[in-house]
Amino acid sequence: MSRIDRELxxxxxxxxxxxxxxxxxxxxxxxQTPPPIEKPCPAELPRQALPAPGQWRGxxxxxxxxxxxxxxxxxxxxxxxxxxxxxxxxxxxTQGVRSLxxxxxxxxxxxxxxARHAFECYVLALRVKGVAPGLHRYLSLxxxxxxxxxxxxxxxxxxxxxxxxxxxxxxxxxxxxxALPERMEWRYGDAAYKVLALDAGHVCQNLxxxxxxxxxxxxAVAAYHQPKMDELVGVDGSDEFVIYLAPVGKxxxxxxxx
Length: 258
Ligand SMILES: Cc1cc2nc3c(=O)[nH]c(=O)nc-3n(C[C@H](O)[C@H](O)[C@H](O)COP(=O)(O)O)c2cc1C
Known about the structure:
By secondary structure, the protein is an alpha+beta fold. The protein is about 30% helix and about 20% strand. The strands form two sheets. The chain has a seven-stranded antiparallel sheet with strand order 1-6-5-4-7-9-8. The chain has a two-stranded antiparallel ribbon with strand order 2-3.
């Protein structure tokens, strides 16, 4: 038995929720401090600076028309590694910072309802030159990677946590986005959930398009075992939970999709 009934599920996706939300009672209107725009990162974690926007090498000048026309889901990846520049470019394309609006809000390379940006991005590095294999966090404000931990048999672990989608473990890296709903609830109350889910789509679409500039392919993945994925990333499943992920790897020309 599902925890929600069909009527409720459909209603959450309508903007009917907004009509029934008392916006005078949202944390924002009550004067509460917004949650941090980036989840704090323990100071003791090793950090690695990423090549900065405009300074990275190996990014092809692909026209936006060509990128949109060529975009497709790839489920077969070459054994080639991604370079650090390529990974930095993909992370910037999906969650990179355009500008800070004080300490309370940020504008990114993707849009977000109310500029709330309720996501964090984790990177499971499997084959990235210059990046230790294992789980990292993308610290977008400083454009760094923080190393969280190595994973035993990472390819098998991510395949298991994604319900046996083995191709994900064959990627060079897997971008895993978590949602921190409080950032969106602070402004929208019960109307937070629809816009939060919509926001995730923009992030992954930018990844698809950016992949076209580095000879890589990706595949949006929303089918996974929620408790296993949350455990793999190390989040509590309520205040922060995995919402979407995408493996990335160099494209095998002419490969049959899995
Ligand atoms: C929200 C969403 C969830 C998806 N989840 C998965 C998934 O779990 N596994 C998978 O192999 N593909 C997944 N896909 C990829 C779709 O199957 C793919 O986009 C679709 O077949 C159309 O192919 P195209 O992207 O090449 O146009 C997902 C796509 C979206 C947008």
